[in-house]
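Q: Could you fold this chain for me?
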Amino acid sequence: MSENNSPNSTSGSTQNPATDSPHFKLRMIGALIVGVVYGLLLRISFENKSLHAWLQIVSTTFLIVAPFSIGAIAVLLAAGKSRISLGRQAMVSCLSMAMFLLAMFVCLLEGMICLVLVAPVFMVAALLGGLIAGVIHNHFHASKVSLSSFALLPLLLGPIEANLPPAQSEQLVSSVIQIQANPEEVFDQLASVQNIKADELGFSFVHLIGLPKPLAANMNGNGVGAVRTSRWEKNVSFEEIITTWQKPYAMHYRFHIPVGGIPRDALDRHVEMGGEYFDVLDGGYDLKAKDGGTELRLSTRFINKSQLKTYGDLWGKMVLNDFHQSILGLMKKRAEQAHQQ
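A: Sure. Below is the predicted structure, expressed as structure tokens.
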């Protein structure tokens, strides 16, 4: 019986994966390089201001479709004319995405904050794209057509999403902590907060990935209309204009971020508060006597102006809640220390 009539043969031009390992390794290296270059070209195109009317980087297309296509393209190129196993599909698609994320960081196209925020979705989307491409390649042998289709997919869907009607999403994040001190003692800690030390803030995920830490907050005046100026690391500063002052039960404010208050290198532009895609509106502290101490609540209202409604809202809430817990922990330490003196 000839080799082409063997039950294990699917096509005269299809190689046996068991004997294709040396060739696969070479194809995989080439596929990973092409996948990364394709991804970088997409990243540059979606950020290009002249193409902003058709391609927007903070979008579902770039968050999901672009990595989907990167994973698919890498798998199709790595497969060549051979069948590609499920394990290899997963390996190639995930490696291509990991290298793309690294390349964006090395090329200074994205900062650590953005990369951490998008990495989970990028990885899942790339894996899904690689697995679907593997099925198409193994069962339908349409690699050339599939390769072109996957490559064009983000460029076709991007303009459609960019021209959808804008729909802003307003969200409220509220966090609570119990403090063993009376409301008057807690309230006294809120207006001006001097010389914040890193160990007073405790562990915070958002600070770990690069969000600047607060250094101090200075109150100019008292009551409604007073201005509380917050200073953070990396020369970040912004104002909180007091709108409610009910000592010792409430201090509310609206945010004012002056021009240059957040330097370009302090935060990634795509997640910058007061920037093109996200903005903080107002917030404040509410205090209530409870269980022999004080329940302190910190609230912040923000607006998501991007096309990423669900994912943007999710991460916005997570980042603010994590930051809230850090600040509330600081207030707790200082108020309880003052109570014991």
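A (continued): The radius of gyration is 26 Å.
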